[in-house]
């Protein structure tokens, strides 16, 4: 039995079902983005590295190993994440090269944003360096944990390097692999891992957790109605909603998430215009945001529009019911379905778009055609 920790309440059943004494060499934790998988995996890595043998409660947060982990300096914890995600690591600071620099805490809202564009892929050099060092043995004589997040962001050459280690795992080495989209992970990698599905919370549970977190943030005041609106817009992913609201509160014009939120709002305002949408202008004003973020917003809007057109209710944008009902009267169902297929296809390649603005122009132009007689 593992102690109850800061794990999100909807993930506690998954946490309680883990057996640290008989842990597999590799797990693949998958589920919707923004529901707490990364925080879960960090706590799990710490529990697997905890050296307290006198208690069944892990992590103990008292032993030397837990101390090293909490300060971001445990030599047997190897995180492989792209530059865009390194701020999520516990007490980690990076100075722009391929190797981690220890220091600041994760989610440090006061950290300076880099002027250079951060890489979104885990480099093959970094992967090879980590894999090659596995033959040396663990520094503290216990477990060694490699965390890879998000797994689907691995380049094919990096994925093949990982696969070789999964086929012949080094002694006392545990791989914690995380994926938002398990369908994008190589079947050969999936087959060598124990699959764990991270559930999304029900709306009441997710909102209760979110409001508790927001109450602990000084100066961040929002009405319950506004919180619920953002919660629905972000697909019921509490951690993503929390990050969104913090970014909005900080008003950081250079923060990637803040930029994406603002662009997404403008995108949806444009899509609400239906046939009157100025798709060239919309693409021009939104293309610098995260392409995946924009596609997700478009897909949610399209999903609600389809639902209302078929007599249902909107899931993501209930506040825009009247607008959606008005648009639904002009929808060409066949073109709507074709637009949906285009969105699904675009999402398969969202991490490697050839040109964001051109892709957005094509999709928004197609969206306009939905409403033409």
Number of domains: 3
Question: Helix count?
Answer: 15
Name of the CATH architecture of the largest domain: 3-Layer(aba) Sandwich
What is the mean pLDDT? 84
Structural class: alpha/beta
Low-pLDDT runs: 1-5, 92-117
Q: Tell me the distance between the termini.
A: 62 Å
Largest sheet: 5 strands, parallel
Radius of gyration: 22 Å
CATH superfamily of the largest domain: P-loop containing nucleotide triphosphate hydrolases
Strand % is: 5-15%
Textual characterization of the structure:
This protein has 3 domains: 9-197, Rossmann fold, CATH 3.40.50; 201-251; 271-373, Zinc Finger, Delta Prime, domain 3. It is 45% helix and 8% strand. It has helices at 12-16, 37-49, 64-70, 124-132, 156-167, 187-190, 203-215, 224-233, 238-250, 256-271, 279-286, 291-309, 321-328, 333-348, 356-369, and strands spanning 26-30, 77-80, 92-93, 101-102, 144-148, 173-179, 194-197.
